[in-house]
Design goal:
Helix 4 runs parallel beside helix 5. 45% of the residues are buried. It contains 14 helices and 15 strands. The radius of gyration is 21 Å and the shape is elongated. It folds into two domains: 190 residues, 3-Layer(aba) Sandwich (Rossmann fold), CATH 3.40.50; 169 residues, Glycogen Phosphorylase B (Rossmann fold, 3-Layer(aba) Sandwich). Helix 2 links the parallel strand 2 and strand 3.
Length: 365
Amino acid sequence: MRVLHVITGLAAGGAEQQLRLLLRHQDAATEVAALTNLGSVAQAIRADGTVVHDIGMHGNTDVPALPRLVRLIRRGRFDLVHTHLYRACVYGRVAARLAGVAGVVATEHSLGDDHIEGRHITPPIRALYLATERLGATTIAVSVAVAERLAAWGVAASRIDLIPNGIEVGAYRFDAARRARVRRQLGIAPDRFVVGSVGRLVPGKRTELVLRALHRQSGVTAVIVGDGPERPMLSALAAELGVDVVFTGESMDVPALLSTMDFMVAPSAEETFGLAVIEGLAAGLPVCYAACPALDDLPTGSAPGAQRLPPEPDAIGHAIATAMRQEPLRRPPPVLDHFDMARIAERVDTVYQRIGTINFDRVRR
């Protein structure tokens, strides 16, 4: 089976990294089409050996990009198209249908209660999403919360597959030598207590709460992994509060940066999955978080070290102070095997096989 993955862009981000990991474990012959913004993840996917096509879209309303995508699908003789992120789902489903490909799968990574991929959900956005959803065969929801939101929008349960995001669990295993090396690179002393966060530096992630929680905490360094428009504000806030902080920018090696940390904070109040929390637990870190649907879908108590807290500086600061007095965990909970990417890829491949069989039966009839 030949599969074309269509994604809005390939700069560093959760959905983009998920696609890269999925490609490394899929059985299907795959290529990728990015509508715009071929960033660091595109380079990594190409280095892994997968072809990445640049559609060259210049904005949401760049309709001439549609026939370019249609031609790529026809020329590549793809059996199935798999779309990721809002713009790619809209254009990718339409292009696949115009190219004569009925097998279209979408993964819904970012549907919140009020926002989708950071943009406020308006009636036109919702109407366009639902109109193009009908052109596909199924939508993969990455959590129960996302599946419930899709159902509330009117997507039939029979058109929703629940498959969580995945990680390569072994890559996050604690390594003392890697910790020492990365700390030297970042200029952090071996005995320094490090509090970290991972994510785009945008308002919804509420990274400023990490810095405010460290106000008046001594002997602590914050490591902020990620980049975005809020970085200048966060840098100024750290200086104002007197917080020692290292901004790493975007990184293609999050496991190495997690190895430098002793505690992780995920203060975003609205998440569709909570990948950073899962990654922190896989690195053996204690994690405090405001929202993580991935953990909500697991049995209660199956992820020791994860603590849900209100997104308030005092609550986070108290959790950090408590962690500083305790022995580090350093061991991931066994339940994280549920999110092993090899297993997740098998489940996605099973969806492909089911959709492919349905379409083949239609052709025969």
